[in-house]
Specification:
- The chain is of the alpha/beta class.
- It has 2 domains: 115 residues, Arc Repressor Mutant, subunit A (Orthogonal Bundle), CATH 1.10.10; 293 residues, tm_1862 like domain (pyruvate-formate lyase- activating enzyme, Alpha-Beta Horseshoe), CATH 3.80.30.
- Helices cover 36% and strands 21% of the residues.
- It is built from 15 helices and 20 strands.
- Helix 3 packs across helix 11.
- The protein is globular, with a radius of gyration of 21 Å.
Length: 478
């Protein structure tokens, strides 16, 4: 999952990553214009939600979540996210809501409570809801031994009906998975695996506290494909210490050899004031803004040559992949997991720190594993904060989402989706023309960001934000 950066450490649920977009046609934009709009200095949200996570409040609690769960219509198709907040080794670059453990004892206790929460949530939902998407994230979900994977899978299946065509995806750490775990995931119904790569270069890996060879990753990919898991996602990072054009190019070429279906190319966000373990990373060897832009541009060109089309601001996919088709069909969406082709209105988070998105708003479970466990064992929902949508929130969220997915805003589509008044959409949208006269243009359908200015999409989106983003320390725009 992806979320926003805040000065409050308990808001951090998942890896902090930044994004930048360079034109699919590599049309250059002068750096002085990029600087004028603050590309190399601005800190703006990623907008995996709106409002962003730092604006969640304690005004939303367990009673709201319970009511929203009970309001899910009979026969609805919903999505589930399951959070496993444990790792064998904590990578220095990562700001996941996770904790290190060398033994299985804490994992066993967590799983027992997670099973209780699954039953608790299922009891509040109509009995005939269907799971269309199931995603396990972390942390490291594959830290679960094979028997625990099977146990968690059995609990999910005994409490929910998982659709025959459901996408079941799991985040996999190649350094923490074996044949037995892969077999257990296959028995679970795994259809897509997400593999963190970051960078294969040993010098870069040493600087970020990670040890993962190409051979390890290749072996896991081969084992997954051997059991029939055909859909693979890879995550890469640019902007890492000691990362050069040559080193990143070598990593991208190795990734192309493994031929995943989609690739996320995120920017490393150095925020040691929040992710304390990042103090171990040598900041003096981090590339600056213009160098990061060059790294991304080079990688994007190589991926394009390798047959991947750019999706939104930071993803790449081959023809036939769900994200690729969603972009073509203009049904691409954003949620806490980044870009998705999942258009389900109900995303229910399970586990410590998990976020749920419902038509009424957002809720977040207690991020403290011990407090979350205590609450569940007391028979309580552990919602500690959230946000209840206003009509304006729904309109702005749709506008920002379309801007980051399609680089345009189409009032007619927004009105049909949100039931907002056309004049309200037009008024809000028109402000972008005044604020960004050189990069936002108008056509018969609405407004759009000029092809060579897509790199500024997050900055343009922030201009629509009705909440005070200046008070929160978000990630850099590039």
């Amino acid at each position: 999952m992806l979320t926003e950066i805040s000065g409050e450490k308990w808001l951090f649920l998942i890896p902090i990553k930044e994004s930048v977009f360079v034109s699919r046609h590599n049309i250059p934009m002068k750096q002085d214009l990029l600087r004028r709009y603050g590309l190399f200095d601005a800190r703006v949200p990623r907008y995996t939600s709106y409002p962003t996570a730092p604006h969640f409040t304690q005004d939303v609690g367990p009673s709201h979540f319970a009511a929203w769960l009970m309001d899910v219509p009979e026969g609805a198709r919903i999505s589930l996210y399951v959070h496993v907040p444990f790792c064998r080794r904590l990578c220095w670059f990562c700001a996941c809501r996770t904790q290190g453990t060398r033994t299985d004892g804490p994992i066993r206790r967590y799983l027992d409570v997670l099973k209780a929460e699954i039953q608790q949530v299922a009891a509040l939902l109509p009995p005939d809801v269907t799971i269309g998407r199931l995603h396990w994230g972390g942390g490291t979900p594959t830290i679960l031994p094979a028997e625990m994977i099977a146990e968690l899978g059995a609990t999910l299946r005994s409490n929910f009906t998982i659709a025959a065509d459901a996408e079941v995806s799991v985040e996999i750490d190649p350094t923490c998975v074996d044949a037995d775990r892969i077999a257990a995931l296959h028995d679970l119904g795994l259809t897509r695996a997400s593999i963190g790569v970051q960078d294969f270069d040993p010098t870069v890996q040493d600087a970020i506290g990670r040890q993962q060879s190409f051979a390890q990753t290749q072996s896991v990919v081969e084992n997954l494909r051997r059991v029939g898991v055909k859909n693979l996602n890879f995550d890469l990072l640019y902007g890492l210490p000691f990362q050069t054009e040559e080193r990143l190019e070598a990593t991208v070429q190795q990734v192309l050899d493994l031929a995943p279906d989609r690739i996320a190319l995120y920017g490393y966000a150095h925020v040691p004031w929040v992710a304390k373990r990042q103090v171990l990373i040598p900041a003096e060897h981090l590339p600056d803004g213009p160098a990061r832009l060059t790294l991304f541009d080079q990688a994007a060109k190589t991926l394009a040559t390798g047959g991947y089309d750019q999706i939104g601001i930071d993803h790449f996919a081959r023809a036939g992949d769900g994200l690729h088709m969603a972009r073509q069909n203009q049904t691409l969406r954003r949620n806490f997991q980044g870009y998705t082709d999942d258009d389900c209105a109900w995303l229910i988070g399970l586990g410590a720190s998990s976020v749920s998105r419902m038509p009424q708003g957002y809720t977040q479970n207690n991020p403290s594993t011990s407090e979350w466990q205590k609450g569940v064992l007391d028979g309580r929902l552990t919602t500690v904060r959230g946000h209840k949508f206003t009509a304006e929130d729904v309109m702005i969220a749709a506008m920002i989402e379309e801007l980051l997915c399609q680089f345009r805003i189409t009032p007619a589509r927004i009105a049909a989706r949100t039931h907002a008044k056309l004049h309200a959409i037009e008024s809000t949208m028109s402000s972008l023309l005044d604020r960004f006269p050189q990069i936002v243009e108008r056509d018969a359908n609405g407004v759009f960001i000029a092809e060579d200015a897509h790199v500024l999409a997050r900055i343009v989106a922030a201009a629509l934000d009705q909440y005070n983003t200046a008070e929160t320390r978000y990630s850099r725009a590039v």
